[in-house]
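Support request, priority: normal
Reporter: lab tech (M.K.)
Component: structure prediction queue

Hi team, I submitted a job for CHY zinc finger protein from Brachybacterium tyrofermentans yesterday, and the status page still shows it as pending. I've pasted the exact input below so you can check whether something in the sequence is tripping the parser. The sequence length should be 107 residues. Please let me know if I need to resubmit or if it's stuck on your end.
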Amino acid sequence: MTRARPVVHGPTVDEQTRCIHYRTSLDVIAIRFACCGEYHPCHLCHEETADHSSRPWPAGSRGELAILCGVCWTEMRIDEYVAAEDCPWCGAAFNPGCALHHPMYFE
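Reply from support: The job had stalled in the queue. We restarted it manually and it finished. Here are the results:
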């Protein structure tokens, strides 16, 4: 049985989850927000399209599937993502600058 492809909410600009805010070749992830369980490409997309404030994943949530690689569409755990420079499944490079935003997403 094949899982349905997750929906990515917000102003995406391509099929690899890039958005109007972050669209370099390395901006290929979406984040499932703890507050609503919906994927958005970034915190700004969530802010612009959700009807509520975001909140970070609690510290004990590192095992949650909350990151989506926009290249291969594989969901990964938070701990896998924060430890990776690229997708463990397809090798797509991730933007190292995203680590600056981790406190917005993960406690």
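The helical segments are 43-49, 78-82, 102-105. The chain is about 15% helix and 15% strand. Let us know if anything else looks off. Ticket resolved.
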